[in-house]
Amino acid sequence: MTGRHFLTGSVILVGITLTVVAAQGPPPKDPAATRAPDLVELVKLDSTIRLDIRYAGSNNFIGKPVYPEGRAFLQRPAAEALLRAHRAFRPQGYGLLIHDGYRPWSITKLFWDMTSGKQREFVADPAQGSKHNRGCAVDLTLYELATGGAVQMPGDYDEMTERSYPDYKGGTAQQRARRDLLRKVMEAEGFSVEPNEWWHYNYQDWRLYPIIDIPFSAIGK
User: Fold this and answer.
1) Domain count, the chain
2) Is 6 helix (H, G, I), strand (E, B) or coil?
3) Which of the four pLDDT bands, split at 50, 70 and 90, describes residue 12?
4) From CA 39, how far away is CA 16, in angstroms rounded?
5) Of the listed 41, 121, 144, 197, which one is catalytic?
6) Is the pLDDT of residue 8 over 70?
7) What is the rounded CA–CA span in Å between residue 218 and residue 22?
8) In degrees, to the nearest 5, what angle opens at C-alpha 89 toward C-alphas 88 and 92?
9) CB contact at 8 A, 27 and 212
C-alpha cells in the first residue's frame, strides 16, 4: 500500500506509514560526517522563539499531520547560532517563528514518495538525505513582537512556485525588505539560504553531521 493511502487516515495511521517507510532501508551514510548528533530543543534556549510546526498539523503541502509532536530541534552549534539571530531581531521589533528544524529521514522519504514532477524541486531526494535530516536546516520566518503575528513575505511557506525563490522580484517592497532582512541576519550567524526557498536556512557545519532517523519521542523532553 502506498504512503498516499495511509495519509488519508488519522495521525495513528501516519505513524504506521512512517514505520513502513523506514523499513524500506536505513538512511544513507556519509563517511565525512564524523560529529556525533547533539540535538537541542529550540524553545528551551529561549521561550520567545515561537513555533508553528506545520507538519504536526494539516496546514502543509501534504494536508495531513506527519509529525506526532509540534517540536523543533537543531544540532547544538546551529541552535546557538539561531538564538543569536533571534536576539538580533529584537531591536527591530521582530522574533523568529519556526516552522521546522530537524526532520527524521523517514519523513523525507515520505515527502519524496508523495510528490512528482516540478514538486520534487522543493523536496529532498532521500537517497542523498536532507540537511534537515542532519539537524542543520531550519524553516522559519519573522513574527512581530508587538502583535505576535507572522509577517507577510513575498510567498507563503512551502509554496511550490517561483515566489519561494529568495531573489523573487515580486510582492511588495515591505515584503521583500523583511525577507532580505531575515537573510542578512541569518547569514551573519553562519546560515545560508536554500536557492529556491526563502524560509529554508542551512547551517555552515551541516556536512559534519550524519543523516539520522531519530523520532522526536527519543529526544529528551
Assistant:
1) 1
2) helix
3) very low
4) 24
5) 197
6) no
7) 15
8) 120
9) yes
User: The domain spanning residue 62 has which CATH number?
Assistant: 3.30.1380.10
Least confident of 23-27, 115-119, 154-158: 23-27
What number is the average pLDDT over the span 36-51?
Answer: 97
All cell numbers assigned to 102? 530537524
The C-alpha atoms of residue 178 and residue 46 are separated, in whole angstroms, by: 22
Per the CB < 8 A criterion, the answer to whether 40 and 79 are in contact is: yes
The CB density around residue 60, as the number of other CB atoms within 10 Å, is: 19
Q: Residue 71: its pLDDT value, please?
A: 98
pLDDT score of 221: 65
pLDDT at 14: 43
Q: Quick check: 3 pLDDT over 60?
A: no
Q: How many CA atoms lie within 13 A of 133 on its CB side?
A: 26
Distance CA 14, CA 144 (A): 33
Distances (CA, A) of 120 to 112, 146, 198: 7, 37, 17
189 is catalytic: no
How would you label 94-128 residue by residue, b for 16+ Cβ within 10 Å and e otherwise?
Answer: bbbbbbbbbbbbbbbbbbbbbbeeeeeebbbebee
Structural domain of residue 191, as residue ranges? 3-27+36-218
